[in-house]
Amino acid sequence: MVISGKELAAELKGKMAEQVAGFEEKYGRVPHLVVILVGEDPGSVSYVTGKAKASAEVGIKNTTIRRPDTISEEELLGIIDDLNNDDGVDGILVQLPLPKHMDSDKVIAAIRYDKDVDGFHPANTAALWLKQPCVKPCTPKGIIELLKKANVEISGKNAVVIGRSNIVGLPVAKLLLDENATVTVAHSRTKNLGEVTSKADILIVAIGRPMFVKGDMVKEGAVVIDVGVNRNPETGKLCGDVDFAACVDKASVITPVPGGVGPMTICCLMQNTIECFLNKMNKK
Ligand code: NAP
User: Fold this and answer.
1) Fold observed for domain 27-112
2) pTM of the model
3) Which of 90, 114, 116, 118 is the catalytic position?
């Protein structure tokens, strides 16, 4: 089965749109997401455009603040500070990567944790690992939703995550652990990677290497989730970290690229924005 993240995201966005439609009457306004884009990186421009489009579909107010990559870190921190103190802003997202002269960790930590819709703030990361209420990072959250939608039993299964980044590998490993999987996290220093991945009932691949995972690395009947977004060096087309053609017949469930994890990431960003909005409204 090829699971379409695109279809699931469309279904979830439809439900969110119905929910948001009632907010004006109930709370006097709709959620407001502010996205900050520094520079003109084409990938980042396209992600920011996708976030604005999804916000429009759901009925969330979206503001994109664009600044050239020559702005200082201080100026960016000033923008974040203003948004932190603006009661009419519910979610703040700084599109990554930032220019080299900026410290991304410092910038992310400057966002109010309860407006951190990406779920990258240290307070949200700590709360995730302590199993406390938090804003969950969008891609890992979307992966769990995809697995549930495909009726994949996670509890008791051997899950292998390749990649240990703060934004995908580590948090998805934690969410799988919370779902009672037995989790192995593999990375660039893992020895005999194919042997490790061949034991996976659920294989999550987030490494950023085009079509790296081949059929012989996948167990028969495994569930394969491809997080990678790469350009195929030969065709220039978008492709994942998994060699889809080589793995599709071995996997029981697999996600395509594009149309798999990517749309779910944006969908979860919308969910997080609504969550931050409702947390604030319900505190009043
Ligand atoms: P990242 O920060 O570059 O981390 C890559 C991870 O992969 C690292 O932990 C690295 O190991 C590991 N790795 C690299 N080469 C490897 C190899 N040959 N064998 C085993 N492990 C290897 O990447 P990321 O931000 O997690 O993103 C990963 C991919 O997902 C990228 O293609 C990115 O574009 C994509 N992505 C997609 C979405 C989406 O919504 N679809 C969202 C986020 C990211 P070390 O730690 O040892 O270096």
Assistant:
1) Rossmann fold (3.40.50)
2) 0.97
3) 118
